[in-house]
Amino acid sequence: MWRLALRTLKFRRTSFVATFLAMFLGAAIVIGCGGLMETGVRMAAAPQRLREAPVVVTGEQTYDSSALTERHRIDAGLAGEVARAKGVRAAVPDVSFPATVLKDGKPLTEKSASYGHGWASARLTPYTLAAGKTPVTGGEAVLDAGLARRAGARPGSSVDIVVQGTAHRFRVSGIAEQRGDHNPDAAVFFTDDRARALAGGRIDSVAVLSEPGTSAAAVADAVRAEVGDRAEVLTGERRGLAELPGTLSSRRTVVILSAVFGSSVVLIVMFGVASTLGLSLQQRAREMALLRAVGSTPKQLRRMILTETAVLSVASVLLALAPGYAIGRLLFKVLTSSGVVAPAITYHAGPLPMATGAAVTVLAAAGATRFAGRRAARTEPVAALAESTAGSRWFSLPRLLLALFFLANGIGLAIATATVMEDGPTLASTAGPASVLFCVGLALLAPGLTKAMVTLLRPPVRALSGLSGQLALRNAATAHVRMAGAVAPIVLLIGIATGTLYMQSTENHVSRTSYDENILADYVLDSTTGGFAPGVVATVRATPGVAAASEFVTSRGFVDRPGGPADTDLRGVSAEGVRQSLDLPVVAGSLEDLRGDTVALSEKKAREYGVRVGDRLPLHLGDGTPLRPTVVALYTDNPKQQYLTLPAATLAPHTGDGLPHQILVRAAHGTGTEVHDRLAALAARVPGTELDDSSSLAGRNNQIQQILVSANYTIVAMIVGYAAITVVNTLVSVTRKRRAEFGLQRLTGATRAQVIGMLTVEGALIGVVATVLGTLASATTIVPYSLVKSGSYLPSGSLGIYLAIVGGSLLLVFGATLLPSWRGMRSPAVDTVKAA
């Protein structure tokens, strides 16, 4: 059987190349998604500034199994307790806060890219003095060499540094250089006491240096016993998470993204491999019959087919390992460039995703071999004399049940999306797979559906296409199973691409318009130096032409409720200007009472949490701090902008930088451009302040809301690309198999033009059938998603998206059909028939 199988592979190159490509590309894509999943589950980062410490103690970054979005700081006294643990040589407290060096009144770095630390932590990178001396007094600082060079600073000179929104003058006591090829953020070092005071008295983490000869694991166990559940102890590659507060919150996004698309890819790959292999076996029906005629048993044929499949699947999996790793790296790069995860996170693709990709490919091939190979092996010897009868039977009870299973699950997910799921990040996790499942169900029933639709299309085709149409209709009637093999992958392509792209365009439109309507401010002041000092908003209000100004802070927190904490968006505002800055129509209480430990929320949220004005709402802020604010106002619900509103002075200290980064400004009526000029002059006096209109704030929010857009498009492009390759494989394989048929037609009087015309009509029929079925499948994603998002059955987005998808699919159909046929008909018809 091995020799026969290998000889068969040698002489059936075209069909086996198509099958090999389906397996190879499928395995590579599954391996890539598996690597992304493993990266999200492990969520590790190599340390940068703290790399010399084998153990790092930091604040617990989770609350009730949910990841915190802000840094959870720890008490400074914990460093002393850590130092007493067995095997600890030194416990170095570490703090990190924005510290922006100015030159000529302007920041040297953008987006708060330089940070302040205590000098004791310099040895953890390590930094060493290249010139000058260590800081001794609170008015001294050490700059890293890069900052000193750009600032033109040297030991003994003075520089202005913005900390906590205020510029302070420091004397440069020294210049520090780091060893190694790591690239931590630009650093400014103060005395340990001054750094701790500037950071608010608490510390970020404790770097643990172990005694010589003591293992990191032993020290970590001793430290855990000392600190208990008051802090988290990190070792190995997870130490870097101490430098990346809020990173764990992206784990859920990465895992959900890889799981949703990975499962869709697995399903599509299994279908693609099975359909390609099934088509290959279907085309070999005469070969199987001849083998039976010379004495082969069905068992021997099944063994031969299984051996062929094993050779192809093993070869494709082995060759797919490296491309699969590269695909995973590409997906991870898209996520890091989009801001979904920090670039410092380590990409992992171990044995598990490799094994998963191999298992999916092998199982898909084995399943196709079992079903398609079983029928081929049972082909009666007499069928060798009647090749035209091969492949005419397609219906079976198992196939019907499997199709109904996929269709029912697709419809079920669509109904769940429209009736059960709430508008939020998880909405796409049910809407997206609905069209994939429905596509697979339709593809399983494609022979019957194709035959029925061709029957409906018979009158217009006859009327419009003449003899070529007659030939195409006859072929479609007698070979509807073959035509369905071409229809099925195109249904997948159109259904998945249309559903996903319109789902994304609807999300973009709804997010942009709802945020625009919520913002009433005319201008926004934005700080790039770590936030605004408390007095800046008062200065803005005093500016002539300003009707109102409100600080603006964003974060995420958790509302404590009996069923478990519910994560929610948080907004911090100023009571004096919130009514003029945000569209929050009050129905009870007053937004002017938003001072101290208070909160305002929508009517819907109040009913959900069971509170009203005057009640206390138990919640935890983004850094894990518990709070029980009093409800002072309820406002009408905006389902697209659901958040709790707190005083900015209450929320800001529990965010990363501890200060508001934006100030919303409402201009007085009739002020024209004068107020803009005054605000621009004010921004020039506050270092690192940028002035823009409120649309920039809406644009930044849209960027945050749509942070997964590029990742979605990349993964969808891979899925669509795989489906497109499956389409080409299928059509080219079918067309090459029909060369003898085309030769016979030419020998009986048909011209090349008439044969090409017949194929053109067949391609049009395939395109029409696939477009109708694919559009129907995409509706299971588009309709429920649009209903939840915008209350409309129709999605938002250009009609051009749909036309481009359908047009691209038709180009694939005609290109993969007409080009091989035209090339094949360059040979004499007699030679083509003789070679069959």
From TrEMBL:
<feature type="transmembrane region" description="Helical">
    <location>
        <begin position="799"/>
        <end position="819"/>
    </location>
</feature>
<feature type="transmembrane region" description="Helical">
    <location>
        <begin position="400"/>
        <end position="421"/>
    </location>
</feature>
<feature type="transmembrane region" description="Helical">
    <location>
        <begin position="427"/>
        <end position="449"/>
    </location>
</feature>
<keyword id="KW-0812">Transmembrane</keyword>
<comment type="similarity">
    <text>Belongs to the ABC-4 integral membrane protein family. LolC/E subfamily.</text>
</comment>
<keyword id="KW-1003">Cell membrane</keyword>
<feature type="transmembrane region" description="Helical">
    <location>
        <begin position="713"/>
        <end position="734"/>
    </location>
</feature>
<feature type="domain" description="MacB-like periplasmic core">
    <location>
        <begin position="17"/>
        <end position="225"/>
    </location>
</feature>
<dbReference type="InterPro" id="IPR051447">
    <property type="entry name" value="Lipoprotein-release_system"/>
</dbReference>
<keyword id="KW-1133">Transmembrane helix</keyword>
<dbReference type="Pfam" id="PF12704">
    <property type="entry name" value="MacB_PCD"/>
</dbReference>
<dbReference type="InterPro" id="IPR003838">
    <property type="entry name" value="ABC3_permease_C"/>
</dbReference>
<feature type="transmembrane region" description="Helical">
    <location>
        <begin position="254"/>
        <end position="279"/>
    </location>
</feature>
<dbReference type="Pfam" id="PF02687">
    <property type="entry name" value="FtsX"/>
</dbReference>
<feature type="domain" description="ABC3 transporter permease C-terminal">
    <location>
        <begin position="714"/>
        <end position="828"/>
    </location>
</feature>
<keyword id="KW-0472">Membrane</keyword>
<protein>
    <submittedName>
        <fullName>FtsX-like permease family protein</fullName>
    </submittedName>
</protein>
<feature type="domain" description="MacB-like periplasmic core">
    <location>
        <begin position="488"/>
        <end position="675"/>
    </location>
</feature>
<feature type="transmembrane region" description="Helical">
    <location>
        <begin position="309"/>
        <end position="332"/>
    </location>
</feature>
<feature type="domain" description="ABC3 transporter permease C-terminal">
    <location>
        <begin position="260"/>
        <end position="381"/>
    </location>
</feature>
<dbReference type="InterPro" id="IPR025857">
    <property type="entry name" value="MacB_PCD"/>
</dbReference>
<feature type="transmembrane region" description="Helical">
    <location>
        <begin position="755"/>
        <end position="779"/>
    </location>
</feature>
<feature type="transmembrane region" description="Helical">
    <location>
        <begin position="483"/>
        <end position="503"/>
    </location>
</feature>
<feature type="transmembrane region" description="Helical">
    <location>
        <begin position="352"/>
        <end position="372"/>
    </location>
</feature>
